[in-house]
Amino acid sequence: MKDQTTATPELTLERVNTPPAQTWNYLRANDITLTVPQLSRKGDVYFALPRLFEGIECGVGPQATAWVVSQAADARYVEVRAGERKAEPIVVDVDANDGDVHDVGIMVRAGAEACVVVNVHGTDGEPATSGALVRIIAERGAKIRVLEFVAAGSAQQHVESVGIQAAQDARVSVRQYFLCAGTLVAGIATSLDGDGARIDHACRYLVREREVADINHVVRQRGRNTRADVRETGVLDGHAKKALRATIDLVHGSKGSEGTELESVLMLSDDVTNKTVPTILCDEDDVSGNHGASIGPVGPEQFQYLRDRGLTQQEAEALYVRALFDEALIAAPTPEVRANVLARARMVLGDDVANDLVEGLGLNEEGA
Amino acid sequence: MTPRTGGRKLCGADELVFYDITASFEERTIFTDILKKTAERVFIPLTVGGGINTLDDFARVLACGADITEDSADKRSLAGIFLSYQAPVEVPGVPLYSYLRTITQKRPELKMTARKFRARVGEIAEQLDMDSSFITRELNVGFSGGEKKKIEMLQLLLLQPKLAILDETDSGLDVDALSVVSRGIEAYRASCDGALLIITHNTRILERLSVDHTHVMVRGRLVAEGPGSLIDDIDAHGFEQFEVAAQAAGA
């Protein structure tokens, strides 16, 4: 999908990233509308995923999901056999400069273990729209780790959608590092279908200058004794705009389940726009749902602690930004991902700090 | 200026203020010798009103006994004062590694390459029986009370302050955690030429330490002082004797 010239027809996607339960329309927090290129695929023969994947709910919603499916040249299907521990990560590499669009389906059979890495990289160049759709089925007792790294250019738009179905006793771990893009639309929906299934989800984001990030997190807890722990921590600076919708849905039949969702937003500028919509839906007794959000500058207690160790307010704020890159680099599993994070660190933090990150982790410039 | 006799203030001023104590004569930038002599003679706080331009200036003034309580907490910290928290604050979004690296880089005397820094942190963590995975976890988030105190000790050993104030560091610790904290304090004494002020209700934390001076406070007032052996007396007879004496003195 490299040829995105002015002649490329466009499509407007409505109701992208819509949460299961909505708030007042006048808040303009219920969804986002996107204009995306629409390449014709008429006459092409391409590989589609097994129909089993069609039933998986994805974070960005049906319209945006259908757009990614229509634009991806070929779908990629990966199956991890029962009991297999897949050593190499399943990598979805998205070149935002080229407007790459990927559609990936992953079947992790019973008791198997796998790691999925989505690496979105782009530079400040021509405008382009990229997309990644990852749908995962984790069978009984499977363990799946999802790592997402997004660092696209300020003129670029990226749509990132993930859908996960987890069977009995499946373990899902998600780490998202949104280092950001001109416009990032990211949604993830996880359905804990089986008893005892769990998800541990952490999302870190940095949105700065005039970037826009629109994020939708949904966890449906359907099985008994399921656990969901969702934590988002982010930094907003400049004229950044960010919306996060996070929903814990304790569905009828999910007795004994617990769901927690907490967001902490650090606002470093008066000109940022933050929308946080945390929701708990509950149709079952004997369940526990918690959510909360902390939004504002560095908390007074935290600031006092950091100050007592020698940091000024500006340095304390800079620490939060550096911390995000440190964490992303530590989590980055391949040299390509590390190189992507480092390139963004160099742009945001400057060469001195980036070099310090490289040396601290014993890496070279290529992230190896 | 009030002469000091036997550790007691006789009369006179409450505060001595030096304004703009810079000088270019003989290439001296600060009259540290004056500060030093004054600190020897008087038992009152000194405030420095100017001439402090660099961190080294602060360190030298501090070493003379001047009062820097007017300064902001970050400047006091950089001047060499370390205050250990009784209940260390959780800082979500900041991994321990990033935090330690940032506060270390602020101190010119501790500047080292990132590689050496990691090795140094690893050494101290081992000394304190800390799991290496601590380093990637968020600062104090989800840590037990004992683990948080270990992180305080880690910072004490890493920053090597000139004065460390440990405010009830032993509160809420089990025997094992207390032993680790004591080891941290011992290591600080062995490796740093600094002073430790340990504030505690319980003498157990002091068992493994060689204490130079003991001060007893009752309701915010100093009521007794003595050598380290005073702790044995407190162990044998408790604090009640001091409370009774303080009440009698008050009456």
Outline the structure in words:
The complex is a heterodimer of chains A (368) and B (251). With 368 residues, chain A is of the alpha/beta class. Chain A has 2 domains: 10-296, no CATH class; 299-368. Chain A has 5 helices and 18 strands. Chain A has an 8-stranded parallel beta sheet with strand order 3-5-7-9-11-13-15-17, covered by helices on one side. The longest helix of chain A is centred in the C-terminal third of the chain and has 19 residues, at 313-331. The mean pLDDT of chain A is 92. Chain B is an alpha/beta fold and 251 residues long. Chain B folds into 3 domains: 1-79, no CATH class; 83-193, Rossmann fold (3-Layer(aba) Sandwich), CATH 3.40.50.300; 211-251, no CATH class. Chain B is 40% helix and 18% strand. Chain B has 9 helices and 11 strands. Chain B has helices at residues 32-41, 55-64, 73-78, 96-105, 114-127, 145-159, 175-191, 230-237, 240-250; strands at 4-5, 8-9, 16-18, 46-48, 81-84, 91-95, 138-139, 163-167, 195-199, 213-218, 221-227. Chain B has a 3-stranded parallel beta sheet with strand order 5-8-9. A two-stranded antiparallel sheet of chain B has the order 1-2. In chain B, strands 3-4 form a two-stranded parallel ribbon. In chain B, strand 8, helix 7 (175-191) and strand 9 (195-199) form a beta-alpha-beta unit. In chain B, helix 1 packs parallel to helix 2 (55-64) and helix 6 (145-159) runs parallel beside helix 7. The model of chain B is unreliable at 1-13 (pLDDT under 50). Classes of the chains: A alpha/beta (368), B alpha/beta (251). The A-B interface holds A 204, 231, 233, 235, 264, 266, 301-302, 304-312, 315, 318-320, 322-324, 326-327, 330, 356-357, 359-360, 362 and B 72-74, 77-78, 83, 85, 88-95, 97-99, 101-103, 105-107, 113-115, 117-118, 136, 155, 159.
